[in-house]
Amino acid sequence: MTPILSKSEAAELIVSARIRKGLTWEAIAEEIGAPVVWTTAALLGQHPMTQEQADRVCRLLDLDSSVAESLQRQPMRGSDPEVLSDPTIYRFVEALKVYGPALKELIHEKFGDGIMSAINFRVDVSRREDPDGDRVVVTFDGKFLDYRW
């Protein structure tokens, strides 16, 4: 019996097929009817897909059933610590190091004692034109979860 393809191996095949076919992440997300950030994260190994979603992606990218099988597996969420050194990703780490304590204070002031869910959660990335250089707009939208004793 052949082992199930790892999430990282499947992700490499998906990224290669997407580039070779000239498809955007948005086009793939539209194909499966899911949000683009969620779809991209799932295809990079961070979320399990339904069989229907996995099969549709593989048909679109001309990938075989071994990739679809991997896409349906429960992931080990998070990433290799080395990934955090990537300049784009590190800017998010840096922003949270600087603004994280202020965001925590503001969440507590507005909502009380609790946290923002990263499970009941949406995230969006957009571009906003600006005369001083285009802006990256990232929106985190998480359900507030109050601490209950």
TrEMBL record:
GO MF annotation, one: DNA binding
What is this enzyme's class at the first EC digit? lyase
Q: What is its EC number?
A: 4.2.1.104
Fetch the CDD domains from UniProt.
Cyanase_C
**Record has Metal-binding as a keyword:** no
- State the active site: R91, E94, S117
Catalyzed reactions per annotation:
cyanate + hydrogencarbonate + 3 H(+) = NH4(+) + 2 CO2
Q: Which UniProt keywords apply?
A: Lyase
Could you confirm whether the keyword Metal-binding appears in this record? no
Q: Where is the Cyanate lyase C-terminal domain?
A: 78-149
Job of this protein: Catalyzes the reaction of cyanate with bicarbonate to produce ammonia and carbon dioxide.
Q: Which family does it belong to?
A: Belongs to the cyanase family.
Q: What HAMAP family does the database record attribute to this sequence?
A: Cyanate_hydrat
Q: What is this protein called?
A: Cyanate hydratase
The gene from which this protein is expressed is cynS
